[in-house]
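Sample 1 of the test manifest.
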Amino acid sequence: MARRQGTAELVERVRSGDRRAVARLISLVENGTREELREVAEALNPLSGRATVLGLTGSPGVGKSTLANALVAQYRNAGRTVGVLAVDPSSPFSGGALLGDRVRMQHHASDQGVYIRSMATRGHLGGLARATPQAVRVLDAAGCEVVLVETVGVGQAEVEVAGLADTTVVVVAPGFGDAVQAAKAGILEVADVFVVNKADREGAGDVVRDLKGMLRMGPKLAWEPPIVKTSTVNGEGIDELWEAISGHRVHLEDTGQLEGKRRRRVLEEVESMVALRLRARTAGLLDQGAEAELADDLAARRIDPYRVAGILLEKVGPSTGESDG
Amino acid sequence: MARRQGTAELVERVRSGDRRAVARLISLVENGTREELREVAEALNPLSGRATVLGLTGSPGVGKSTLANALVAQYRNAGRTVGVLAVDPSSPFSGGALLGDRVRMQHHASDQGVYIRSMATRGHLGGLARATPQAVRVLDAAGCEVVLVETVGVGQAEVEVAGLADTTVVVVAPGFGDAVQAAKAGILEVADVFVVNKADREGAGDVVRDLKGMLRMGPKLAWEPPIVKTSTVNGEGIDELWEAISGHRVHLEDTGQLEGKRRRRVLEEVESMVALRLRARTAGLLDQGAEAELADDLAARRIDPYRVAGILLEKVGPSTGESDG
């Protein structure tokens, strides 16, 4: 009972914009006990759903953080409060705990209208996908009008996290992290806006041409993702990027797609959560009792992994019919 | 019954080294039906466990594929047959289906002692973790004495795939993909050997120093991962890398750790498979019947995602006690 009050009080402090409470609550959604997670989810639920969520994704080195910084400045100029969640291990936003690390981009760190937070990316598969939507809700409840989620666009979990946003900006650059790599990583499909960053470098025109070619090869879309060339060296294209993002927002609202997109997002979040909890049930199953013998048979190749998986599956959650064929 | 014979026959052809059968069987482990996967697992099980599995992981752009190519040459010179699995979306091995893509490194493509194959990386979260170990077994069964698995070391699924190997080589390079980024991505922990590639470039010495510093900060290890500087421009360090990899192999055998490592690996594989099957059961659960109403309540924020996950969890696999506490 005492703990329940504690969580409710913490959420209340978040609601009033207390920055230390925001930090504590995000830590809680990353590392809380099941009971705490349940309480936080219940308390946050009615307080969220107002913030615009912007995703920024792309390979390490394409300049996402510098762009994020430029976008934060745009939002601040427009009088909006902004939260930034860095779930990119290579982001300079991701903090200075490691040897040799420098936090380069936090011009905004002393601005009370900006909250910057990195998410731990080292946990178990799926942990990131569970904690990130809740961290977005924390910033939303704290009054951030815009939440910018920066993810590294390489890896399956990361592509999934990119699906969190109302508008997803995919950043590529000449050289590494180019259009072909983005296509292979599966991040082209999630793009609402393309940025070809480092436009001052050789090869930027080729990247734009490749992207246009790939878009032509794909299906005809109701919203054709604009391609914006930017350079954070000379400030080129930042205004155009801002317009492209705003244009997509208007498109979502005009066509009524925003609601549908958010609905799909929360359903996927629930599915991820169920999968994660089920996975937790399987951990260590082979360490004890009758199953330890199975593990020996498996190691000696007397039984194959697929069959063992079937046996464990029946134990964890017996099939209820067709769905498990 | 006819299909069962088909699978057994295909595995038999793989065993005799038929390259087209290898290609077909890998496609089957990527995309097969549940029944096919079951049959393939059973047939492959007694035929595998002989190959040495080498993992090569690191950020896009650090030069993994060029190193892979150099290692393949070393193994071929030593008279060993080699299979290469590229699960890195940015790898040139990953094929030429996309606009503007060039396959640069396939010197070995016409060598009958080398089999190169890319894995589809675009599927569902976890699909890669399921298919890759089976693809390793296919190459093992086909007589590859060494299987080299190239993964991009960014992203949680990819770190998990890196755990497949007997020996994991983590590649970093000055500039992007350096030691700090590797640490944040959680790939330092999986390293048995470190490579600082592009040693001809400025800053390579700093990367070596950073790595040494991080290793000193960590716990004392029975096997201290050697740090090898390489340059594929001038061939520097390739022999040293070869020796480091061989040295780790000897260490695994001398200390009896190879067996333990492989045992843990197959147990983790089974857990992943169980989790994936359970996840498949949850997909679409909210689309139908009484649950569709839950989805409406969820979208309207009348109920929170955590609570809905709890309801679905009970439906998919009722808790059997403590383990889900």
